[in-house]
Amino acid sequence: MMNGGPPPPPPMMNGAPPPPPPMMKGAPPPPPMMNGGGPPPPPQSNKLNKPTKQIPKSATQLRAFNWSKMPDSRVTGTIFATLDESSLYKFMDLEDIDRTFDASAGKKTNGEGEKTLERIKSQRMQQISVLENRRQQNCTILLSKLKMTNDELIRVLFKMDSDGELAPDMMEQLLKFTPTVEEKTMLEEHQDEIENLARADRFLYEISKIDHYEERLRCLHYQKKFKERLAECEPKMSSVICATKELKNSKRLKKFIEVVLAFGNYMNRGARGGAYGFRVSSLNKLTDTKASSNRSITLLHYIIRVCEKQWRDILRLDEDFPNIKEASKVNITELEKEISGLRQGLDFIEREVTWHRGQGSSPPGDRFRLAMNEFTAQVYKYGVTFDNVTTMFGEDFKTTQPEDFFGTFDSFVDNFREAKKDLENMKKKEEEEERKKKEA
User: Where is this chain compositionally biased, Polar residues type (predicted)?
Assistant: First the structure.
């Protein structure tokens, strides 16, 4: 199948010997002179205005390399438009390829101060609480975990926790214990006996005296979470940007793709041959084509052997992509949700900063806007860079997700490394067997 190319009008004569008349094979829109780009017939031309592929003919029917051929109309502007694999055939042992991948040969074969109990009871009898019992208990537990006095906690809040004494999860819990209007009214009735208030009640009474306590706490919580979430988002975007640069700049990958194009056009006949490019997913199908006599040898093994002899630098191709694996884990939908949440939080911060300025007090920190501007600029850079690299490889950036695109290359790099190891092990085994023969 031609995987997304423009459908040719019937009859489907791609790849047939010289078709009379040539006008019957146009692609839409059908100018009379443009044929469908099939194999060898001399009169044929193609949509790229390039000469017909000069591909040697195999002496026998070969096992097909199940690639996804790129439609000729998609080749312009991609990496494939700069390739000419025809110059590579003179470096390839075509007879050996014929023997190794002969379709007619071989068939399939087959993872804390202690206190006495009386003292505690005495203190409890003297304490006053206006809070609902469970709320008082939960607030007291939280305050004991904080290990701060009320004065210390209030100091931290006024400093906007510049020393990092409050963990984000503690602030999240504190937000559950902001005094309600009813609680404030009841606590005010005991303002002359503050010393007798239970710990949780006294805490709520004292923080109720702070202007915009809840808003201040929310700002602080957002600031903490912003840093946390930003720290999570930035590496994701960075990995995509870096992986994109790696793919664009790898000369080894470009050469390897050219070699694969040569093999694919040599091994495939008819409509599947004569390709000017292929979908990147085809790189992971190199392991599906097996040699006829030794099915442990795949087309990927074979191509690596050829590269070892003719284009040895290609063997270091897997060193060119240190960021591919991380980039393949990026979920763009989740990342966009995270960015949207950060922007909404920033809107709340800006409203609170404006209120504090109106009161003449110091704002919680208006450095967020600068940080967010830098952040959104990086997001934009991320999007543009990814669009560029997908286009380079002939993929549609509108429908291609980063995790799928980079996942394809990550799998290929893993397969490439594994195939190299296989070949090294085979070579060691052969050398060992040869040594034993000589010693015998």
Answer: 45-55
**Does 345 fall in a domain?**
no
Instruction: Give residue 19's pLDDT.
Output: 45
Q: Where in the sequence is the domain holding 39, given as residue range(s)?
A: 1-52
Domain final residue pick, 225, 247, 263: 225
Of the chain, the end-to-end C-alpha distance in Å amounts to 54
Identify residue 145 by its one-letter amino acid code.
K
The answer to whether position 167 is within a domain reads yes
pTM exceeds 0.70, yes or no: no
pLDDT over threshold 50, residue 21:
no
Q: What angle do CA 257, 17, 61 make, to 5 degrees?
A: 55
Cα 381-383-385 angle, rounded to 5 deg: 65
Structure-token pair, residue 199 = 């710990």
Q: Using the predicted structure, report yes or no on whether residue 256 has a pLDDT greater than 80.
A: yes
Sequence-ordered list of residues with C-beta below 8 angstroms from that of 248, at least 6 positions apart, any chain: 388, 389, 392
Nearest to 185 by CA among 208, 162, 166: 208
The CATH number of the domain where 134 resides is what? 1.20.58.630
d(CA 201, CA 190): 10
Q: Which amino acid is at 436?
A: K
User: Which residues, 6 or more positions from 177, have their beta carbon under 8 angstroms from its beta carbon?
Assistant: 135, 138, 139, 142, 200, 203, 204
**Distance between CA 395 and CA 297 in Å, rounded?**
30
Is the residue at 80 inside a domain?
A: no
Residue 110 included in any domain: no
Residue 62, helix vs strand vs coil: strand
How many angstroms separate the Cα of 132 from the Cα of each of 139, 179, 192?
11, 12, 21
- Residue 131 and residue 46 share a domain: no
- What is the total count of domains within the chain? 2
Q: Cα separation of 248 and 77, whole Å?
A: 13
